[in-house]
Amino acid sequence: MSAPPKSMEKIMALCKRRGFIFQASEIYGGINGFWDYGPLGAQLKRNLRDAWWEDVVLNPLGGKPGPFGEPVRIVPVDTCIIQHPRVWEASGHVAGFNDPMVDCRESKARYRYDHVSVYVPTWAAPLIKPETVGPKLSDTDEGKPFFAFVSDTPSEAKQKKKAEKAHGELTVVALSAVPKALWPRVVGPDAEKTGSLTEPRAFNLMFKTYVGATATEDDEAYLRPETAQGMFVQFKNVLDTTRVGVPFGIAQTGKAFRNEVTPRNFTFRSREFEQMEIEFFCHPSQAAEWYAFWRDTRMAWWESLGLSRENLQLRAHDKDELAHYAKEGAGTSDIEFRFPFTDPGFGELEGIAHRSDFDLKQHQTFSKKKLEYFDPDGGELLPNGAHKGERYLPHVIEPSAGLDRGVLALLCDAFTEDPSRASPEFLKLAPRVAPIKAAVFPLVNKEGMPELAEKIYGEVCKQFAKTGFIEYDAKGTIGKRYARMDEGGCPYCFTVDGDTSKDQTVTVRNRDTAQQERIASDQVVRYLADHLR
Ligand code: ATP
């Protein structure tokens, strides 16, 4: 039997209490969909971003070769949040970045149109077609109400009960399949009366702003909803100024903004968030292999950061779920994590999409600048899949990860309860991402212990302070000090005690096991070097 989901309330309380995550503008009552990181959260987020940067940009995949045996080459950029507005026309965001929503006039709730379903009597289901329904159905079923619901919410069971009472045997249809003539008979998911749902309306998810002082329509610009387009737009400059050639990747991390209609689940769906994206360019004939390579490599990466395998899954998109740019080609897969609020289901952490040549083609058309790749080296069939002298638009495999969702997944996975410990709640964060790397304590604040502890603290700082916090704490009982470090996710605490001055040893306490061992006091730095990766 699987364990019950962890409590999101407890995780959020720990995040607040220990300074991981705060509500943005909290003293003004907060602002929906925005979150700030406190001291420990800022460092945790930075460690995750640095781990990605190291494994993607500085030392791609630790030297692991690509699917054709060659080294994987990736170069970074750092592009602007505000781009020329035409970028977003070319990318399809101005026209297509919409989630149609329906509002409920009665309950004031707002729903994604494609998330709302309706229970209809089974006998009537074949009649629910735009051309035949309406009068015909109304003639035969005495105008009874239809009950709408949203899957996986309390409305599902509640509305089912009412619908069964009204109609007997039921069939589920999408609200979008119900002709408008019947909408006055639909009871919204959280409503009591019929006819409360509005027509679906489009909400563009991009934040608008103005560039320049006049703030007219001509000055309108957008905050980027993804970092990807900046990389496509600079594709040619990167090629012309570096020695990379196809296949290669461009990578960047940075803020993205989406005016999400229903921000929820802590930082999972925020309006301001950070992405870590790779656009990997390859010859079209090699796209399938690179797609499979990136999908599996990225999945292994999340696991390497300590996320448990049983809370991770790879999910290939169904054909009808694919984004407009991914309809043709090798497909899209999401790396999903079982968050407490999705349990037993999963929520997206990173998407890996074969975007074909959609973006480069669009920018070539809109900018009227040639973005084709030409391999000057010639040769018959080149190792990159191109033919001698071939000019082509490379295909793109895009692994696109959410940094904030990554932090949230790490926190949820690490959150551990053990009522028998002095720290009944603590964080089993992998040492590589843990914001506090180590702590040094004198058992008591006298008898020469502080001096010895301070010396060790200084040595540890010198070696490890660039990777995270090193704490020194001389106050309170030792149990309380350990508990505080456990809650912050600190993997190792070193304590100088009465024996240290006699035998030059200190204790190391392991956060996960709460066990202690003695090591030589001049081996602390060495111990950490061995254990912090
Ligand atoms: P979803 O279906 O959850 O809205 P998406 O498919 O629109 O996500 P992408 O456009 O593929 O997301 O963005 C890539 C990554 O950016 C996602 O895997 C996720 O980690 C992150 N992300 C997207 N939207 C948000 C958001 N509103 N808040 C936090 N992270 C987000």
Task: Walk me through this protein's architecture.
It is globular and about 95 Å long. Helix 2 crosses helix 11. The longest helix has 20 residues. It is built from 15 helices and 26 strands. Helices cover 29% and strands 24% of the residues. It starts with 7 loop residues before the first helix and ends with a helix. The protein has 533 residues and is α+β, with helices and mostly antiparallel strands. It has a seven-stranded mixed sheet. Strand 20 and strand 21 form a beta hairpin. It binds adenosine-5'-triphosphate (ATP). Adenosine-5'-triphosphate binds next to strand 13, strand 16, strand 19 and helix 11.
The secondary structure category is: alpha+beta
For the largest sheet, list the strands in their spatial order.
Answer: 3-12-13-19-16-15-14
**Percentage of residues assigned to helices:** 25-40%
Main pleated-sheet profile? 7 strands, mixed
How many strand units?
26
Write out the distinct hetero groups bound to the structure. adenosine-5'-triphosphate
Mean pLDDT: 92
Percent of residues in beta strands? 15-25%
Radius of gyration using CA atoms only: 28 Å
Tally of individual helices: 15
Distance between the termini: 33 Å
Tell me the overall shape: globular
Question: Which segments are poorly predicted (pLDDT under 50) over 5 or more consecutive residues?
Answer: none
